[in-house]
Structures are given as C-alpha cells and as structure tokens.
Amino acid sequence: DGGITQSPKYLFRKEGQNVTLSCEQNLNHDAMYWYRQDPGQGLRLIYYSQIVNDFQKGDIAEGYSVSREKKESFPLTVTSAQKNPTAFYLCASMPGGSYNEQFFGPGTRLTVL
Amino acid sequence: SQQGEEDPQALSIQEGENATMNCSYKTSINNLQWYRQNSGRGLVHLILIRSNEREKHSGRLRVTLDTSKKSSSLLITASRAADTASYFCATDDYNDYKLSFGAGTTVTVRA
Question: For residue range A13-25, what is the model confidence (pLDDT) as tens digits?
C-alpha cells in the first residue's frame, strides 16, 4: 500500500515542552510539506522541502523546525517558542519535477495543556 | 499568505440538489486545484485545472476557471450525504511548488 502516514493521531503536550510529529511517505515523492489548520480555517504552510537535505520556511515557520535526512521522512518539531501550538497538523507530499496534486496524511491533532 | 477565498463560507442543501461554491484569488496562477476534507481528516484531491483551461469535468464535479476575473467555481451535481465535507481551493504560481489555500466552504447535504 502506498501512502503517507502521520503519527500520532492525537498528541498532548505540556506548555514549555518540545514535541516532534512524524510524517512518512512511501510514494517516492521528492517534495514534502507541513501545514497547520486552525478551526474553521484553511491550511497555512509551515515548512516545505523539495529535495533531501534541503527545506524552506513557509508562511508561519516561527516556533517550528524540520529536518529532511531521508526522502521518505519529514518530521516537524513544535518548540516551546511556538506561542499557540494547539492545532491540527497536516503533512503532504508531491512528485517532483512539475506541478501536481498533493497527497495528504490523516493529520495529527496537537493539544497543549 | 492565503491567496484564495471561497464563497459562501457554508452551504446547506437537500440530497439530490446541486451545490456551487466559488473561489477568488489575487495574483496570476499556474494551476488551481480543489480539495475535499471530511471532518478531522486529511485533504483529498478532487480536480486540477490549468490556467489555460476554462472548464473541466470529473464524474459529478464541474470546475470552471476565469483567469480574467481571477475566479473559479466548483459545481457538485446530484449531491449525496457523502458529499458533506469542507471544500478548499488552492492555487500555485509559476515560481515555486507551494500551494496557497483558501478558508474553505463547508457543505452539508441533508437526507
């Protein structure tokens, strides 16, 4: 089965703690993306990576960090510097080379207690 | 930054009726895409229309694109309860591989 997976589905964190969200894909896609979605709103881009060992900031990168050491993996760390981290986080991937649809994972809902 | 804006924000229709939603955007685009999101889930791609296309069909979906007005519409014909979801338009430009999403239209199909 090809697809994109995110874990965990639900995550609870205490204020002041860093937390890492996992995103893995076996679609052999070059590009990967992280989005944040708040209730009743659209998606906002946090970080994206078009190739291994390279990534760029999106519109709301402050308080987040990423790495892209392997083609299939693009973990997102929500740091304690992120002032309002409670949200639904979506990971997506896309074949490289030309513009196509993005394939989304099921999402991780992060709640800060 | 959010490029697309969907209208209306919410739509409630009876099963069997058609649902139409619109998307407006600000700057020139390469492609425009429509996605569906069921509550609490990831997004699913519905259709992609290129800037040189005016209309595209996929099953019960019909998408139009008017680049002179910077707007697109999504029509769902003969709606079903399973069409209850939020629908988002997303645009990309010529310079990079990023998508800009609108805030979405929430569609409720009543049985």
Answer: 999 899 999 999 9
